[in-house]
């Protein structure tokens, strides 16, 4: 979830970083709190069993497993997997955000290049923009549950003012087994041609400028729709999910402090795994 925090970092203050780190909504703390809590419960369960329930021989046997798991963790290339996965996710998010589509350019070009004050000229300008907004609403219905709840059916688009009754009939008359969000854009391009023929657009250059803006708008919507249609191959999240959780499953044992005489000299017995918790927040978060 994207949470706006720009107003909090607009000015530089000594305590700003603490205020930013203390946010809960949309934060890394909220994202990892449940899993970290479960991990700590398991860690301290093993901690208590190892220290207080096992005898000396059982402790020594358990310490062999600690050393084995500690040596085995290096075989999980977690840094490489997470960096590769995060790069893909951020790239997809950035591409989708940049291509959501802003109607402003089409509206500005249409209002400037489609001349005339007659009802016909005004209707052409309004309908070109409305058809583009209609196409965008159709795409977003397939991407966002909020938009789908707002417009659960095409009839809801009619009642919302995006489409007229006769246009809905024309839309349903188009036989296509795939998504038909391009149909309103085709209507908008047809209106551009009609406006040129009727003299509301005074040159082919101006007509071309409007049609190019519509084309760029459609290309962006198509790219967003394709990113939703073709998901990231499931093996990538499976590998990352498995590697991360196996890593910290091994850490439940390998990060236990050895309490017998076989421990490394100079090690400090810290009852709370500070660095492992930090690592958990960085990797899982």
UniProtKB/TrEMBL annotation:
Location in the cell: Cell membrane; Membrane
Coiled coil: none
Membrane topology: Multi-pass membrane protein
Superkingdom, taxonomy of origin: Eukaryota
Transmembrane domains' residue ranges: 36-54, 75-94, 234-253
An example molecular function term from Gene Ontology annotations: chloride channel activity
InterPro entries noted in UniProt: Bestrophin (IPR000615), Bestrophin-like (IPR021134)
Gene Ontology, cellular component aspect: chloride channel complex; plasma membrane
Keywords tagged on the record: Cell membrane, Chloride, Chloride channel, Ion channel, Ion transport, Membrane, Transmembrane, Transmembrane helix, Transport
Function (record text): Forms chloride channels.
UniProt family annotation: Belongs to the anion channel-forming bestrophin (TC 1.A.46) family. Calcium-sensitive chloride channel subfamily.
Official protein name in the record: Bestrophin homolog
Natural source organism: Mesorhabditis spiculigera
């Amino acid at each position: 979830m994207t949470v706006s925090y720009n107003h909090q970092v607009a000015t530089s203050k000594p305590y700003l970083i603490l205020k930013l780190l203390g946010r809960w909504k949309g934060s890394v703390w909220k994202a990892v709190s449940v899993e970290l809590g479960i991990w700590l419960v398991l860690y301290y369960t093993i901690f208590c069993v190892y220290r207080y329930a096992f005898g000396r021989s059982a402790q020594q046997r358990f310490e062999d497993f600690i050393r084995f798991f500690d040596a085995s963790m290096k075989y999980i290339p977690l840094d490489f997997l997470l960096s590769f996965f995060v790069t893909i996710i951020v790239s997809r998010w950035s591409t989708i955000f940049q291509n959501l589509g802003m109607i402003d350019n089409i509206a500005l070009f249409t209002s400037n290049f489609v001349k005339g004050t007659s009802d016909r000229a005004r209707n052409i300008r309004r309908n070109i923009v409305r058809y583009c907004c209609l196409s965008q609403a159709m795409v977003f219905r397939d991407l966002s549950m909020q938009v789908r709840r707002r417009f659960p059916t095409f009839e809801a688009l009619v009642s919302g003012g995006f489409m007229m009754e006769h246009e809905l009939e024309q839309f349903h008359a188009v036989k296509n087994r795939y998504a038909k969000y391009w149909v309103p854009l085709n209507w908008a391009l047809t209106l551009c041609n009609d406006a040129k023929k009727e003299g509301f657009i005074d040159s082919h250059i101006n007509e071309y400028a409007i049609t190019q803006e519509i084309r760029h708008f459609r290309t962006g919507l198509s790219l967003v729709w394709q990113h939703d249609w073709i998901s990231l191959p499931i093996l990538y999240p499976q590998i990352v999910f498995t590697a991360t959780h196996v890593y910290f499953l091994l850490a439940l044992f390998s990060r236990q402090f050895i309490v017998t005489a076989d421990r490394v000299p100079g090690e400090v017995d810290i009852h709370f795994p500070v660095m492992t918790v930090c690592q958990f927040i960085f990797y899982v978060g």
